[in-house]
Amino acid sequence: MASPDAFYITTPIYYVNDSPHIGHAYTTLACDALARFARLDGKRVHFLTGTDEHGQKVEKAAAAAGLAPQAFTDQVSERFRELARAMQVTNDDFIRTTEPRHKAAVQALWRRLAANGQIYLSSYAGWYSVRDEAFFAESELVDGKAPTGAPVEWVEEPSYFFRLSAWQEPLLRLYEEQPDFILPATRRNEVISFVKGGLTDLSISRTSFSWGIPVPDDPAHVMYVWLDALTNYMSAVGYPDETAPSYRTFWPASVHVIGKDILRFHAVYWPAFLLAAGLAPPERVFAHGWWTIEGEKMSKSLGNAIDPHELIRTYGLDQTRYFLLREIPFGNDGDFSRAAMINRMNRDLANDYGNLVQRVLSMIHKNCDARLPGPGALAEADRALLGAAADLLGRVRDAMATQAPSRALEAIFEVIAAANRYVDGQAPWALRKTDPARMATVLYVLAETIRRLALLTQAFMPEASARILDQLGVPPDARQLACCGEADALTPATPIAKPEGVFPRHVDAAA
Ligand code: ME8
What we know:
By secondary structure, the protein is an alpha/beta fold. It has helices at residues 22-40, 56-64, 69-86, 100-115, 168-177, 185-196, 225-230, 232-235, 245-250, 263-277, 308-315, 317-327, 338-367, 380-401, 405-426, 428-434, 436-457, 462-471; strands spanning 6-15, 44-52, 93-96, 119-129, 134-136, 153-162, 182-183, 202-203, 205-206, 214-215, 218-223, 255-259, 285-288, 291-293, 334-336.
């Protein structure tokens, strides 16, 4: 049992056959927002990402690059680390499947499965797609290709098998007893009908190449790359040492966030391996949707993959994070277009959020002696706005608990819109002469609303939110979500710095 206040979240470990692109950035950023939110909300968080470095696909990519596999994976893995750094991702660990700690874990899991009678030696004859690193039955092929469109090759070799067929009923029970094991619900239904259709035993070793973890006591075989890769989630917290504090605190994982392309591996094979080994399956697998680029599938041959570094350079990091997490409900497919990116950046961030902050802080700076004003008695409209900002924490927390960052951001931006309407309705600039005390109240209510908003946007837009909180004079130790309430409200007379815009507008160089 993991600790009740623990939150262990993982990204897939990415194949090092290629440089990271926007699809990888997306999953990692979503996990980062979820991890940051949980940390701000007082949880003990462990956030893991890393790279998947064995198997035929990587071996071939290394050969094509003219490098030995280890040298090649060292190089490409580093690009994924660099991207995480550039995106200010707050992962607590980065695992590589070529590390000794991981090899030891996979071999221990294998031995345990073998000891439980879950593995037998036979031979495999069938189709294999290197691109998917997956076996396919003849009946699954579509026009002679894998259902993903990847080419398949005929494989015939000795192989160890895992008794997957024995786990159909226990898996169905797991989906029943843990109804949120697979989210979103549509994905859950897909998996259930796949498992109900019957499971065949799974080939879990290969003999026709060598870039993998050797099977214990039979080094002619290397382990199937998915058995190897999935185990990363446990090796990173100390498995096979089940007494390790990190293992006891964090296993089973709270959520594995993945793309829908690898759902079967995570929602069928992985829990089956764990149940067969007598280990606890994760609490949840969340499969998000697929990005296309300007209406087209991202592909090597089209050369249209988007480099996340370029996005950050062109539009800014917080802007990129915001766009990816806001534009598409997590779970749905979406299209990346620069027009949509610029629209979100200019409309939501510059006009709505940025302008609210800039207007309010400038008015305070100019009209209140650069100090936070003290509020008088609150009117109905003041209470309504502060109330909406206070209710936000619950709404955002609910959304984040089901991995719905776009819903969380929508709720936050509803309050930003309400605050902008309030500014227009109260017209504090006009009160300056007619009723300065009322102006002070209105500006205080707005500043306090902005404080609550900025606390909540920290998980999504950490840099800009920190700058807003700095400008309001909120000390670093008062930025936990527990400080969202009235008890930690801004102190009148706190000096505020001269405000500087936090969300610039994007002006297209070509426009
Ligand atoms: O599958 N849209 O690694 P991988 C959204 N090594 N997300 C995308 C995407 C897109 N167009 N393209 C990629 C593997 N992704 C295995 C995983 S885990 C034990 C082993 C993201 O490098 C998405 O998260 O092919 C997808 O699941 C992942 O990258 C696949 O990364």
